TrEMBL record:
Signal peptide: none
Residue ranges occupied by any Protein kinase domain in the UniProt entry: 22-244
Keywords: ATP-binding, Cell membrane, Glycoprotein, Kinase, Membrane, Nucleotide-binding, Receptor, Repeat, Serine/threonine-protein kinase, Signal, Transferase, Transmembrane, Transmembrane helix
Pfam family, any one: PK_Tyr_Ser-Thr
Listed name of the protein: Protein kinase domain-containing protein
Compartment annotation: Cell membrane
Natural source organism: Kalanchoe fedtschenkoi
Membrane topology, from the record: Single-pass type I membrane protein
Similarity annotation: In the N-terminal section; belongs to the leguminous lectin family. In the C-terminal section; belongs to the protein kinase superfamily. Ser/Thr protein kinase family.
Amino acid sequence: DSGSKDSLQLDFAAVKFATDDFSESNKLGEGGFGAVYKGTLPDGQEIAVKKLSKNSTQGDQEFKNEVLLLAKLQHKNLVRLVGFCLAGVERLLVYELIPNASLDRFLAEDVKRAQLNWELRYKIIEGTARGLLYLHQDSSLRIIHRDLKASNILLDAEMNPKISDFGMARLFTLDQTQCKTSRIVGTYGYMAPEYAMRGQFSVKSDVYSFGVLVLELITGQMNNCFQGGETGEILFSYVRHFSL
């Protein structure tokens, strides 16, 4: 639907101005897909702008189709897409700005972790589960996220979790149960063994990643703090040690 895509397309100059020309002072972070900047649109709306790497092999039409897919996902536990920009080699994804840090920051920093009482931890687990259920079952589409992890869970002003970063997500048909790929993407430590070793993924792959996330919240230990494990066994061993 080209009309829907056009309604989401934002003026590049306006987004550039909103982020003060993508200034370092507005930079929120940087990952494999590019850098993220905060900004404010002329109407006062605060935004987070993901400036995708220019090395991406994704074509313009594929990019627009991905944007349209994201725009159809509306749930209180998913980060909301505001729009996108295409200008020459520049590709921007514009999201609502989530005021608090990502969950991994709360787990990694002692002061922030101390704020995570049991009520808040349960709230984050429940909200993430609701967002995941929406992706897998309750929306008109069936989406496999494929990179569910603490750094992709953003926390709003009331500490409600919002699943973010759908760059690796895959769309399933409603009767499709699994898929296989030779291109393994995601984050070791959160990957289900059958996906990490054989490239097989399904809704169960996301559920496995969610399980690792739950263990991180319960133990207060980040999975990447454990060196040497590729599929989460080290964190599981840590948990089993205290359950005996």
